[in-house]
Amino acid sequence: MTYSLTVRDHMMIAHSFTGEMFGPAQRLHGATYVVDATFRADALDADGVVIDIGRASEALRGILSTLSYRNLDDAPEFAGVNTTTERLCSFVAERLVEAVREDGLGAGNLTGIEVTLHESHVAWASFAVTL
Question: For an engineered disulfide with 41, which of 19, 20, 50, 129 has Cβ 3.0 to 4.6 Å away?
Answer without folding.
Answer: 50
